[in-house]
Amino acid sequence: MAYLVEITDLSAPELDAYARLTEAQLRNRLEPEKGIFLAESPKVIARALDAGYEPLSLLTERKHIEGIGRDIILRCGDVPVYTADDGLLASLTGYQLTRGVLCAMRRPALPTVEAVCAGARRVAVLEGIVDATNVGAIFRSAAALGMDAVLVTPTCCDPLYRRAARVSMGTVFQVPWTRIGDTPSDWPGPGLERLGALGFRTAAMALRPDALSIDDPRLAGEEKLAVVLGTEGDGLAGDTIARCDYTVRIPMAHGVDSLNVAAASAVAFWALRAR
C-alpha cells in the first residue's frame, strides 16, 4: 500500500530524481542497473505499468490523490507518494506537471537488436534525432502505423526521457525498441550490416533527385524493410545513405522543400507498412 509523504523540505535527497538530477544522471550510464526515468501523466504511467515497468515513487499534486491520480497510486503498491500543492511542486521540478502526476521508475536493461527484430517485418531506425518531442511523436506514429519495432542510434535522444515518453502518449512502452550500438562508431557501418544479417533491406529517407518515390512498388514488395530517418536539419549522413539499399523520397508540392522528421515519419510508416 502506497504511503503519503507531505513535502516540507525541497532539498530532501529523496526528491533528487524529481528536482536535481539531469536526464543523463538519471540514466546512469556507469551503473545502468541503477538507472531511473520519469513518466509523466496518469495515461503514460499506466502504460508503463501495463508493460511491466517498476515504480519507485510518485510525485503528485495534493488535489489529485483522490482524483486522477487515485488509480495510479493504487496500482503502484508500497511506494512513497510525495505530495504538495501545485505551486510548490512547480518550484521543485522547474516546470508545471502535466496532469499533475510524476512517477520515478526503474530503467530496464535494453534487449538486443536481434531480440527486438525477431519476427518483425517493418522497423524504424532513428539516426541522431536529438529533439525529445520529435522522438516521442515518431514513436506514436510507429505504434499507430504498423512499425513492429524502433531502433535508435547511439547519438539519438533517449526515448525514455520524460518529454519523449509524454509526447509519445506512452507508446514508448508499447513498441519494442532498443539501441543499435553503444558508441558512435557502431553506426552506420556495423549497424546496417547487423540489419542486413537479420534479413532487412534498408530504405534511407532523403530528398535526393535520384531517390525512389515512396510509392514505388519495389518498396512495398520487400518482406523485411528498415526505414531510416535522419536528424533534424541535416537529415541522414551521406555515409548512411550510401550504405542503404534504397534512397527514398516523399514527393513535395507547392515549393515545400521538406517535412519535419516527425511528420515525414508518419507518411513513411503508412506508405511503407507491411501488406
C-alpha-based Rg, rounded: 20 Å
Gap from first CA to last CA? 47 Å
Q: Would you tell me the overall average pLDDT? A: 91
As laid out across the biggest beta sheet, the strand order is: 8-7-6-11-9-12-10
The fraction of residues in strands falls at 15-25%
Looking at how many chains there are and whether they match, the oligomeric state comes to single chain
Tell me how many strands there are: 12
Shape: elongated
- Give the helix proportion (percent range): 25-40%
Largest sheet: 7 strands, parallel
Q: Helix and strand string, N-terminal first?
A: EHHEHEHEHEHEHEHEHEEHEHEH
**Class per helix and strand makeup:** alpha/beta
Would you identify the regions where 5 or more consecutive residues have pLDDT less than 50?
A: none
**Number of helical segments?**
12
Could you explain how this protein is built, in words?
The chain has 275 residues and is α/β, with parallel strands linked by helices. It is 31% helix and 20% strand. The protein is built from twelve helices and twelve strands. Strands 8-7-6-11-9-12-10 form a seven-stranded parallel sheet, sandwiched between helices. Strands 1-4-3-5-2 form a five-stranded mixed sheet. Helix 4 links the parallel strand 3 and strand 4. The longest helix is centred in the middle third of the chain and has 13 residues. The model has no long low-confidence stretch (mean pLDDT 91).
